[in-house]
Amino acid sequence: MAHLLRAEAVQLAYPAQVVFESVTLGVNDGARIGIVGRNGDGKSSLLNLLTGQLQPDYGTESPAAAACGSVR
Q1: Beta bridge partners of 43
Q2: How far apart are the C-alpha atoms of 24 and 53, rounded to whole Å?
Q3: Residues near 1 by Cβ (< 8 Å), separated by ≥ 6?
Q4: Among the four residues 3, 12, 57, 66, which has the most C-beta atoms within 10 Å?
Q5: pLDDT tens-digit profile of 48-61?
Q6: How far is CA 54 from CA 15, 20, 32, 65, in A?
Q7: 13: left (phi over 0), alpha (psi -120 to 50) or beta
Q8: How do the domains of the chain map onto residue ranges?
Q9: Predicted model pTM
Q10: Which residues pair with 12 in a beta bridge?
């Protein structure tokens, strides 16, 4: 099954802090996932990275910007 979203060893940091590091994630087409965490844990930053609105500092990602119209 093809990955709709994919990230390999990505790191994202803002000037004052590292948001996350070494995150690897693959979401298959048709899968349902949830992203859970406390306030400030980087949930929105991860979604912004996966949709191509942010670029990772390190690692590779294949954003689903073209497929977001079909994601609910």
Answers
A1: none
A2: 18
A3: 28, 29, 30
A4: 12
A5: 888 888 888 989 88
A6: 15, 13, 22, 11
A7: beta
A8: 3-66
A9: 0.75
A10: 20
